[in-house]
Amino acid sequence: MKLISLVLLISLCSCSGNKEVPNSPNPKKILNNSMRVTVNGDLCNQETQYFNELCASVTICRPGTQDCQTIKNILVDTGSFGLRIFSSELSLDLPTETLGGKDVAECAVFGTGATWGKVSIADVSMANE
């Protein structure tokens, strides 16, 4: 029993803190199909973090233009789909997707609630893609 408690204690201690991995890759050497992410790091909002928050940044542009904005604090959610950005975070005026002359909107349900909003069209860049 003491051995199990010691192993558990060591495991918990080794996971605490926001430490840099000693063998982390040089960001300049990241491949084109790779994207830099951080866990509670500089890509996350430092004021509203929660435990093990995985964040990235994306660049969105008005379609076919160089009118772009890079947005940090994008939560990487491997159990979800699409890219959702609060309109309050956008300085760009993106065109809305329409169908039959009417705006298209989407509702997505999550374990903690739901999100609802219009579907906009944008050119999205992540890493070098």
Describe this structure in words.
- With 129 residues, this protein is mainly β.
- Helices cover 10% and strands 29% of the residues.
- It contains one helix and eight strands.
- It has one helix spanning 2-14; strands spanning 38-39, 54-61, 68-75, 98-99, 102-103, 105-110, 113-118, 123-125.
- Strands 1, 2, 3 and 8 form a four-stranded antiparallel β-sheet that branches.
- It is globular, with a radius of gyration of 19 Å.
- Mean pLDDT is 75; it is low at 1-22.
Describe the protein's topology.
Blueprint: H1 2-14, E1 38-39, E2 54-61, E3 68-75, E4 98-99, E5 102-103, E6 105-110, E7 113-118, E8 123-125
Antiparallel strand pairs: 1-2, 2-3, 2-8, 4-5, 6-7
Mean of residue pLDDT values: 75
Give the count of helical stretches. 1
- Spans of at least 5 consecutive residues whose pLDDT stays below 50 are 1-22
How would you classify the quaternary structure?
Answer: single chain
Helix content: 10-25%
Number of strands: 8
Write down the overall geometry: globular
Distance between the amino and carboxyl termini: 51 Å
Succession of helices and strands: HEEEEEEEE
Query: Hey, roughly how much beta strand do the residues contain?
Result: 25-35%
Rg (C-alpha, Å): 19 Å
Describe the largest sheet. 4 strands, antiparallel
Derived structural class: mainly beta
